Amino acid sequence: MTAASQPLPLSLNVSTPLIGTVRVPGDKSISHRALMLGALAVGESVIEGLLEGEDVLATAAAMRAMGASAERTGDGLWRVNGVGVGGLLQPQTALDMGNSGTSTRLLMGLVASHAITATFTGDASLSKRPMGRVIDPLSLMGARFEASPGGRLPLTMAGLCPAVPLRYVLPVASAQVKSAVLLASLNAPGVTMVIEKTPTRDHSERMLTGFGAQVTVEDAPEGRIISIRGEAELKPQAIIVPGDPSSAAFPMVAALIVPGSDVLIENVGVNPTRAGLIQALRMMGASIELLNEREVGGEPVADLRVRASALSGIEVPPEIAPSMIDEYPILFVAAALAGGTTVARGLGELRVKESDRITVMAEGLRACGVRVEELEDGLVVHGTGGERRAGGATVASHLDHRIAMSFAVLGLAAHRPVIVDDARPIATSFPSFVPLMESLGAESR
Ligand code: S3P
């Protein structure tokens, strides 16, 4: 982390409704992909609205280390000059991925089909996360790996140029694994196919098509089949990155649980593969209006008007999990203020995110006076029906930005402060989180 070297405690509180109009930073998933595909096109791509969070900056640094240029210019745009598919250079030092699983897994896909060797390192959180899920398919495509025990970072890999095309049925619902294979296939002959039983975020497919790759997507009985023709030539693009729905989730839930609030969040990506939280919150009775729906750069976008609402507990349909996989921590906060019980299952993947988000949320919510039951693959949260929670606890963020922001938001609806022990991880995805919440009326300490 580049920010302060000492833990940075944070607590938010509010004594008025949250009112105002805000914009959240650019979508993290789309920002990573824009830098990577720009680096593989021949010529200059221009990116507007790139998320300048630590995770995305780690991707930009890696692309530079492999021969592309990726710079922010005075006008706030990012300009990426690519080297062409097959043209990545051997990095001279280890690629430091910081906290970013997306950077790591997608870049492993890129390296897999280049004749280069690269070492990936990361922080304590990233070094605990499983990489076997990308090592397996990329090995089948010809890459070789030396990983730390359990298939973890630090790891060194050598790519094969050209790689071997693959037909791969995803064993886990993971856009990162899907994208790693699709990116590797760009420098493999013939057609590579990825089959996903449950659709996951489709930004890679959309953006690869935008850059001129031949991609087809077919819904078949065995799942969604994504086919891509390799040895692609990517053409540089002008990309506009929409606001990140996973960041919008925090002011959205804050507005729902602070009485009297009325917040407009402009320019938010509402791609159906990401919009599960809106669906779940509406099932709970949330007032969320999608205004001015439009398409920007191949992605659906809308302005979201969110008003404080009386929420009710629900059984969250497990099939929408992939479309809100990063939003469960903040959904559990909404559930803690809802009337009745919320049950969420089918969430084994939450245990291998930046932290074990099931255990970490269960522990933090309990410390704040919320009754929860931890399941192997989910969480049961008993809500208050709108009554403020007790609070009065210090909660550990475990190097996890979404845990930090979730408990900061819970503090807005608690009697006594909820202190997040270390808010530094927020800079990985949403550096403007605290000032944005302040602009709506929250106070930070
Ligand atoms: C991402 C995919 C998801 C998500 C992550 C970003 C992506 O991870 O949790 O924050 O950009 O492809 P998984 O593929 O592990 O589900």
Provide a descriptive summary of the structure in words:
- The chain contains twelve helices and 24 strands.
- With 445 residues, the protein is α/β, with parallel strands linked by helices.
- The protein folds into two domains: 8-26 and 242-444, UDP-n-acetylglucosamine1-carboxyvinyl-transferase, Chain, CATH 3.65.10.10; 28-232, Enolpyruvate transferase domain (UDP-n-acetylglucosamine1-carboxyvinyl-transferase, Chain, Alpha-beta prism).
- The strands form seven sheets. A four-stranded mixed β-sheet has the order 2-15-17-16.
- It binds shikimate-3-phosphate.
- Monomer.
- The active site is at 326 (proton acceptor).
- It catalyses: 3-phosphoshikimate + phosphoenolpyruvate = 5-O-(1-carboxyvinyl)-3-phosphoshikimate + phosphate.
- Residues 15-435 form the Enolpyruvate transferase domain.
- Its EC number is 2.5.1.19.
